[in-house]
Amino acid sequence: MASLVSHPDEVKVVSKRFGQGATDIDRYLELDGYKAVQKALAMEPDAIINEVKNSGLRGRGGAGFSTGMKWSFVPKQSAKPKYVLCNGDESEPGTCKDRLIFEHDPHAVIEGVMIGALAVGAKSGYIYIRGEYRYLSIIMQKAIRDAYAKGFVGKNIFGSGRDLDIYWHGGAGAYEVGEESALMESLEGKRGIPRIRPPFPAVVGLWGGPTVINNAETLANVPHIILGGSDWFAKLGTPKNGGTRLFCLSGNIAKPGVYELPMGYNLKKMIYEVGGGIPHGRKLKAVVPGGSSCPCLTADEIDVAMDFDSVAKAGSMLGSGGVVIVDDQQCIVKFALRTMKFYKHESCGWCIPCREGTDWLEKTLTRFHRGGGMKKDIDNMQYLSENMLGRTFCPLGDAAAMPTIAFVKKFRKEFEDHLDGKACPYEKAGAMELVHA
Amino acid sequence: MVPHYPTKRSALVPTLLYAQDEVGYLSDEVIAELASRLDLTELEVRNVISYYSMLTTKPRGKFNVQVCTNISCMVRGGEEILHHCATKLGVGHKQTTADGMFTLEEVECIGACSWAPAAQVNYDFHENLTAEKMDRILDDYKKKATQ
User: Fold this and answer.
1) If I label A45, which of A13, B22, B106, B122 is the partner at 20 to 30 A Cα–Cα?
2) How many Cβ atoms sit within 10 Å of the Cβ of residue A395?
3) In 3D, which of A60, A89, A93 has the Cα closest to residue A288?
4) A189 in contact with B, Cβ within 8 Å
5) What DSSP designation does B66 have?
């Protein structure tokens, strides 16, 4: 079980029930559980959607799209069944927040899916959890069974005359499946390869029916919005960025952990006060603010509010909330190489700019890191990355290109230090030799 | 699981994982059996297997030791843990010890970034690793298997 941390600046909404035994359904009921879905049952679908829209809740998976808006795209009438799909395929390096939600508060996810289903008129919801999280799938499967046993899901929920089924589904290891259309392919029993859009999932999704897909953290916020009201939730964050965020602090930081902080919390404060700063008297070199796909920020760029709009203005992304801290003992070329090895490994291979682009970038970075880089490689990496941007079927190509452009632009000197046969100034002997040998 | 979905095929990925846990790997027999139960061709099943990193058609050791070396783990010594395991077990990436006890694998992010460096042995997470801690963990599994 992952250990929990705390800090006085935390505002606990999603993490309110962490460590309180809420995996037990009776304990969850004591902690206001399943009250929100009963309230939602008495509301008109449009009223639920408006409440979520007004709360300023934006997708916690990475893209940061308005959740209420996404729900409103689902057609009211549909010949095919509608679905709600919870994306729990958390695989972005630096991100480990959904893991804690599944571990400590699985019923909140179920309740979020149920409210989403009521809002869009779906009769089934699926909770997709990544395959590696087997022990969390067991917790989630038990939570679903307990909810059925109490009659909260299934036929005639809470005596409302409505039927609503919730199912668990497990993956088998593929980062690409976190992309929403690939997630649907995977749930349909196929290779997790993205679909061409349009049509968008809200119109043609799972098994051809209109489908709402939300990240697990997004859905876990929904019951709190319904109970606490959209005004309360919106005020926790900044304008257009309602609520709080689970930030996963990792890397070279004194107190790593998952902290729930208001949207717009200052990154510098997050690193030095909440996270306790950089250990061993070292200095900060770079921060990846929202998971490995986000362009890094240098040490003098961290005075930034952590909400979707402010981080975008600073030239990066809030993404999935995975804040990876890198100290001055780390080699940026190696960091870029490890990032690219990941994207090369996880590229589904369907479209050429991503399949070939990640492979070339990984090869170039490997050569560079081993001391065989040439000066023109630096510009080539930037040119190649810029040509991948926006030219792939899904955002995986962008996710590989964006951090590389930032590494090359912001740390050009470090790349130059590796030129012409010079050994990596940071490397411990032999450390790279086993990687994917 | 099949009744949970409008199409039989949807049960394929979780069913493959369950079968693999049972048999140890996805043997030709398992593939044929699942294909016939889900009304698929064997080729369709193999096509899906080859896509997912947790699915394997080759036997592995009793304990699959997966060490994460992705960015959060890397900057906290994930590679050193992987090297330590490789030296201790005398095997490299995706290789199995002669006694069939351990398979070693370098994996992509396992979602334990805030508790790095981390490793997964079968489905158990092990976090905040040091070389000494890893030694104890491997010894414990070995003991468990031989008891």
Assistant:
1) A13
2) 17
3) A93
4) yes
5) E
User: Tens-digit pLDDT profile for chain A (437 aa)?
Assistant: 788 999 999 999 999 999 999 999 999 999 999 999 999 999 999 999 999 999 999 999 988 999 999 999 999 999 999 999 999 999 999 999 999 999 999 999 999 999 999 999 999 999 999 999 999 999 999 999 999 999 999 999 999 999 999 999 999 999 999 999 999 999 999 999 999 989 999 999 999 999 999 999 999 999 999 999 999 999 999 999 999 999 999 999 999 999 999 999 999 999 999 999 999 999 999 999 999 999 999 999 999 999 999 999 999 999 999 999 999 999 999 999 999 999 999 999 999 999 999 999 999 999 888 888 888 999 999 999 999 999 999 999 999 999 999 999 999 999 998 887 777 778 764 444 444 43
**Does residue A307 contact residue A241 with C-beta atoms inside 8 Å?**
yes
Contact B55 A431 (CB under 8 A): no
**Chain center to CA of B22:** 13
Report in angstroms the alpha-carbon separations of A334 from A135, A209, A365, B56, B82.
33, 44, 8, 29, 17
DSSP string, A326-338: EETTS-HHHHHHH
pTM, to two decimals = 0.96
Of B4, B71, B79, the CB nearest to A292: B71
Q: Which amino acid appears at position A104 of this protein?
A: H
Exposed/middle/buried for B8, CB within 10 Å: 0-12, 13-18, 19+?
middle
Directed axis angle between helix A396-410 and helix A375-388, to 10°? 150
The answer to whether residue B3 neighbours chain A at the CB level (below 8 Å) is no
What is the chain B residue with the closest CA to A185?
B10
Task: Evaluate whether A206 touches A191 at the Cβ level (below 8 Å).
Answer: no
CB A196 within 8 A of CB A393: yes
In Å, how far is A55's CA from the nearest CA of chain B?
Answer: 29
Distance set, CA A379 to CA A165, A376, A382, A408 (Å): 54, 5, 5, 8
* Continuous H helices in A21-133: 25-30, 35-41, 45-54, 67-72, 97-104, 106-120
A292 part of contact set with chain B, CB < 8 Å: yes
Cα–Cα dist A245/B34, whole Å? 42
Using the 8-state DSSP alphabet, how is residue A14 labeled?
A: T
Determine contact, residues A296/A287, Cβ cutoff 8 Å.
yes
- Give me the phi and psi of A355, to 5 degrees please: -60, -50
- Residue of A120, A289, A143, A89 lying closest to A209 (CA atoms): A120
DSSP β-bridge partners for residue A129: A88, A170
Shortest Cα distance from B146 to chain A (angstroms)? 24
Q: Are A377 and A366 spatial neighbours (Cβ–Cβ below 8 Å)?
A: no
Count of CB atoms situated within 10 Å of the CB of A42: 9
Residue A15, both tokens:
């993490």
Q: How far is B80 from chain A (nearest CA, A)?
A: 7
